[in-house]
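Our consortium's second objective concerns turning raw sequence data into structural hypotheses that experimental partners can test. To show how far this objective has progressed, the report includes one record in full. It was chosen at random from the queue rather than selected for favorable results. The single chain below, 174 residues long, was entered without modification.
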Amino acid sequence: SRAWSEVIYRDELARLAADDPTLTVVHTITREPPPGWTGFRRRIDRAMLEELVGSPAARPRLYVCGPTPLVESVADTLAKFVAIGTICAYPKHATIPFREADLWSGYPEETNAPYGLAKKMMLVQAQAYRDQYGFNAIYLLPVNLYGPRDNFDPESSHVIPALIRKCADVSARG
C-alpha cells in the first residue's frame, strides 16, 4: 500500500497470523509509512518475494494483493493468482440465493457499486491474463460462505470453513 491507512484487512491478517504460526504477513509501504516503520518501503517485485521466501522453485504459497502493475511485476514468480470477489458485485435485485450466472445481470446496489464493480473488474482481469498470457488466474466469490471468527471445527462447521481447515492442517503438516 502507499500508506499504512490503506492496508486492507490488516486487523484480520494480524489475527490470522497470531493464530497460525505457519503464516507470515508482510506489509510494504511505498509512500507514507507510519512513525517508526521498519518494514519494506518499496514495491513488491520478484527480488522481494525471493528475499522473503527463497526460490520460486520451492513453490511457497504467496498471497499478493494489489493493482494490476503489481500483479504483472510478479506474475512469473507466482504459480497462481487468486482474486477474491465480493457479494457487493452482485446486482441490487439479484434473486436469493445468489447464482453465479446472475453476476452480470444488473447494476450493484448504489452504495456498494464502486467497490463491487472494481471487484468484478478483477474477474475480467483474471480472464484476460489467462487468455493473453496463459497465466493461472482464478476469481473466487465466497459471498458470505465463511468469515472472520467462523466455526472451523471439522465436526460442526459448514463446508467452506471445513475445507479451509483441512487445507490449513495439510499445509501445517508440510
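The partners drew two points from this record. The beta strands are 81-84, 137-140. The two ends are 31 Å apart (CA to CA). Both points have been shared with the crystallography group to help prioritize constructs.
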